[in-house]
Amino acid sequence: MWLRGLKVPKFRCFSTTTEPEGPCILSPIPGPCSTNLMNEMSCYQASPKLPFLTTSMCGACANEKAMKSMMMAYQAKFRNFEPISEAHITSAVKNMEPGSTTLSILSFKGSNHGSETMGVLTASHCDGKTKADLPAFNWPIAKFPQYKYPLEEFSCYNEQQDNKCLTSVRELIEKGRNDGCSVAGVIVEPIQDSNNNEASDKFIKTLQKICKENCCYFCIDETNTGCGATGTLWSHEQINLPEPPDAVTFSKKTQLSGFFHNIELNPQDGSRLQSTWSGDPSKLFMYESILNVIEKDYLLCTVNDTGCCLKNQLVKLQQNHPFIENIRGKGTFLAFDLKCPGMRNEILNNLKNRGILVKSCGEKGIAIRPALIFNQDHVGIFIENLNGILCDYKKAPVLNKHRKKKIPKYKPPCPEPCPEPPCNPCKPPPLPTCGICSPKKKKPC
User: Fold this and answer.
1) CA–CA separation, 403 and 406 (whole Å)
2) Which residues contact residue 58 at a Cβ distance below 8 angstroms, ignoring those fewer than 6 apart?
3) Which GO MF terms does the UniProt record name (predicted)?
4) Which of 33, 48, 194, 227 could form a disulfide linkage to 112, CB 3.0–4.6 angstroms apart?
5) What pLDDT score was predicted for residue 4?
6) Does 253 map to a domain?
């Protein structure tokens, strides 16, 4: 890309093309072209009722901005949408109340919302290494459902998990209100990327209802599940919420990061959410091309068909290899567990040695994260290689080290006092005798 007036030779030497006569960029970015692009993207948005888009630099920035927006909107509602007073501005500079508030964002155990900023780091609870040595806000952490699979066979247990976790959400919101640390918003992943644990439709719907009842905002983090990996452009579209969430964050596969939101999350004053580059809006061109390819090549249909085939093949594989368990996920956004971490790591390395790229997931899981063009032919290759590795693993003696060790038989201790040198624990020492005792039976006196 050439800019008019770029005359520094050391920069020009990086290009293999000659400098064009006229400028390649005819208008600033953001400008009229990017504004039109944002308007054209309305049909691809998370919901027709989320007409606003705020861009950012990465997924963590998108979640951070969404959390800041929820807090600012909560405070604006608290002061009846009056402008920020001078007292608030002056005290905020000193990190003091009333400008600096004690609001909080509720997140869930096992969540991963990023690690680049302090807010998302506080809301992430999957990797202690990224949080070690760093301060964190005193924000509430609710339980996330831990389902048993297949879902239809454990429906009663899974429903109890939903109720238990939703009860913890209600209690934490109430506790925050009583302690002066009100919950301004709730952020949740439809499928947690760190362990691929998914939330049921009932859980997400009830969670949104709880947020409405307590006047706090509801944000769905789609930075990992967005852009078609679950079979729909946005994973929460499959839930059929009664009304759209207040915010939906996205990143990664979209090449652009940011969040869609309603009018309430628009800041009262300008420049409160802007960064230096405002999230590089020029990537709207890349995102538009991706959306066009998804629509033109029917990639969402491909993901649904391929995901169904892949899950069925994994279930069949599970019947022959009981090492596999807890097959879960939507579309091609799938994962499964193995019996122990050691087994998972060995199978993971063997898959990579065969040219199959998968990643670890949770304590003992393997996550499958293919491209949208992943089809049923690729499924056959993957299943064939995975089956071969499992068959070899079953035959290999290395399997023994992952089995539970046998408990050794109990051996009674030597009688006291023990003669010198120490006796052999396998052979009891001779008992003391006297002349009266029978030398044959050697019974003690």
Assistant:
1) 9
2) 114, 116, 251, 257
3) pyridoxal phosphate binding; transaminase activity
4) 194
5) 42
6) yes
Domain end residue (candidates: 263, 296, 329): 296
pTM, rounded to two decimals: 0.81
Whether 17 has a pLDDT exceeding 70, the answer reads no
Beta pairing partners, 258: 55, 250
Structure tokens belonging to residue 307: 């995901």
Given a contact cutoff of 8 angstroms between Cβ atoms, the answer to whether 373 and 303 are in contact is no
Mean pLDDT of 314-342: 94
CATH number at residue 258: 3.40.640.10
Task: Please check whether residues 201 and 323 belong to one and the same domain.
Answer: no
pLDDT at 28: 47
Please give the tally of structural domains in the chain. 2
Same domain assignment for residues 115 and 193: yes
Q: 13-27, 33-47, 264-278 — which is least confidently predicted?
A: 13-27
Domain end residue (candidates: 280, 296, 312): 296
For residue 305, give its domain range.
Answer: 299-397
Paired sense of beta strands 104-108 and 183-188, if any: parallel
Helical packing angle, 155-178 and 201-213, nearest 10°: 20
Model confidence over 375-399: pLDDT tens digits? 999 999 999 999 999 998 877 654 4
Residues 256 and 391 in one domain: no
- Rounded-to-integer distance, Cα 196 and Cα 190, Å: 9
